[in-house]
Design goal:
This protein has 553 residues and is of the alpha/beta class. The chain contains 19 helices and 15 strands. The strands form 3 sheets. Strands 1-5-4-3-2 form a 5-stranded mixed sheet. Strand 3, helix 2 and strand 4 form a beta-alpha-beta unit.
């Protein structure tokens, strides 16, 4: 505790006597200052014990003393020490009454007690308090380090909460709560997600204070600190207390920040090494060597190969090359996914990596993430948090995408393909499935397609491709040119005949012409195209060409 007026009064060597403000002696003293100015307020910072002899004061004038004391109290001066036996044998009554009226503690300083002794006593008490705080801070650092080594982040948070007599919470890069101490603080910490997200938008290291206004039931004071050494923080720490942190508590918080940064921020060399191991495991799986892959994976990724997994292939494409799909999924993205999608600055693949790894870390599952040239390959447990987070993130991005954004073409957009669940022996097939799903996602204007979805719906949306349309236009152009001369509606006749599976009477009835007329038109189609309609491949190509051109009209 810092020195107080009460501790100075009880100091046996100072012999101070209280003349006013007896009920306010527990206030801390920041410094002892001597000033004989008639108005020393401009030189005060607040928290001082002001020592005077009234050399330039009319201490017997009640009105002057009321003004003087009022200004001192308004400036935050915590007490007034008056030396008797110098200019006045005793403290003038006008000053005593003014101090009592204002509630300002007034101390009588005997002639044999120099002001320097009081200043030394205050200085020594402040130094002792700082030493105790530093010592307590070092002890807290040792305890926090011990808990970090033995109990991980959860143990560290518990120790920190005990040190500050409050609560602590750890957030991941997405703003989700990872751990809290004590457990009851979970709900309080969850309500700060928006504040954590705003903190992430600021350059690291960053901190902010929320709450503490006393206007609600949740009037605790909460400090938020970003964790990490990179451009963007990897996580955040929240510390809630009933009042502002003292020096010892501040040491504890700073130690916790350093330890949590070391715990959550892996070194670049370690991350690169793990990535190389992951790339080797993936290469062996794709080469059909699951046993070798399991050996290399070891404890780092071995658990992934013991249950069905999915392969995810993601890449970026120019926004202008992605058509907005009218039949896009109507899944409702989660709030966490929407928050992650709102922060899409930078590399989309890097953002997806952060989302997947954060989800896996929260659930305690392993995930293998391998950058592969201009794409990202992820191997994650089927039904796990990483696959779910990937899908929700893509859906959130798709929900946020607008036609105006698609028309600008000045950004890259994420496209994701996901395989069906497989085991290690079928990893190569899963990779092919993910690539097929990725190709369909690009063609259909989707951001996220699972391989199981390829067998559902219709093949016709796959025709929405520039190359397919160019082929269809080239194939049917002679017929359109013929019809443009007004010599017969060959295109409509061909469409009707193909739709009726070559049944002359039914197709002729649809067109409102005689079947002989229809037969003549089909012979003209064969002559103009140089192809036989008896060939099923020709009929298939013509039907798909008609569908492709119809979708473009």
């Amino acid at each position: 505790m810092p020195p107080t007026l009460a501790s100075l009064v009880h100091h046996s060597a100072l012999k101070l006597t209280v003349r006013a403000g007896e009920d306010r002696l527990d206030v801390p003293v920041r410094w002892a200052h001597v000033s004989e100015l008639a108005d020393p307020v401009p030189y005060m910072e607040g928290g001082e014990l002001l020592l005077i002899t009234a050399l330039q004061l009319d201490a017997e004038d009640p009105e002057a003393m009321r003004r003087y004391v009022k200004r001192l109290a308004g400036a935050g001066v915590v007490g007034l020490g008056f030396a008797v036996g110098v200019n006045y044998d005793e403290i003038p009554g006008a000053l005593v009454e003014a101090a009592r009226d204002e509630g300002l503690p007034l101390l009588e300083v005997p002639r044999r007690t120099p002001f320097l002794a009081i200043s030394k006593a205050v200085s020594a008490a402040i130094a002792a308090d700082q030493y105790r705080s530093v010592t307590a801070g070092f002890a807290a650092q040792r305890e926090l380090t011990k808990q970090a080594l033995t109990g991980g982040p959860e143990g560290l948070l518990a120790a920190l909460a005990a040190q500050v007599d409050g609560w602590a919470a750890l957030y991941d890069a997405s703003g989700a709560v990872v751990a809290t101490a004590p457990e009851w603080a979970g709900r309080r910490a969850a309500r700060l997600t928006a504040d954590v997200e705003r903190l992430r938008e600021r350059p690291a290291p960053a901190s902010s204070v929320v709450g503490g206004s006393g206007t609600s039931d949740n009037d605790d004071r909460v400090e938020l600190h970003s964790l990490g050494t990179g451009r963007r923080p990897r996580s955040a720490l929240a510390v809630g207390t009933a009042a502002a942190l003292g020096t010892a508590e501040r040491y504890a918080v700073h130690s916790a920040i350093a330890l949590l940064t070391l715990t959550t921020e892996r070194s670049r060399s370690l991350q690169a090494a793990e990535q190389r191991i992951g790339a080797a495991v993936l290469a062996m799986l794709l080469a059909g060597e699951p046993e070798h892959a399991r050996t290399v994976a070891g404890d780092l990724y071995g658990g992934l190969l013991d249950a069905p997994f999915r392969l995810i292939v993601a890449e970026t494409v120019a926004v202008s090359s992605v058509r907005i799909a009218a039949d896009a999924p109507t899944r409702v993205p989660s709030p966490a996914a929407l928050a992650a999608a709102a922060d899409t600055n930078g590399d989309p693949l890097e953002a997806l990596t952060e989302v997947v790894e954060s989800a896996a870390a929260r659930s305690g599952e392993a995930v293998l993430v391998v950058p592969e040239r201009e794409r990202l390959v992820v191997l994650a447990a089927d039904g796990g948090a990483a696959v779910t987070a990937c899908g929700e993130y893509a859906v959130a991005l798709e929900a946020a995408r607008t036609r105006e954004q698609a028309s600008t073409g000045d950004e890259d957009e994420l496209v994701v393909g996901v395989s069906a669940p497989v085991g290690p022996i079928a990893a190569a097939a899963a990779y092919k499935q993910a690539e097929q799903a990725l190709s369909v996602a690009r063609r259909r204007g989707r951001m996220y397609v699972e391989h199981e979805q390829l067998a559902s719906g219709s093949v016709l949306p796959l025709l929405a491709d520039d190359a397919v349309r160019a082929f269809a236009d080239g194939l049917l152009r002679p017929l359109y040119e013929h019809d443009a001369t007004g010599r017969g509606d060959l295109v409509a006749s061909l469409r009707a005949w193909l739709s009726r599976h070559g049944q002359w009477d039914a197709a002729a009835a649809d067109l409102g012409v005689h079947r002989h007329t229809l037969r003549y038109r089909m012979r003209r189609v064969e002559e103009i195209l140089g192809r036989s309609l008896d060939d099923p491949d020709v009929r298939m190509e013509l039907w798909l060409a008609l569908k492709a051109t119809a979708s473009a009209e």
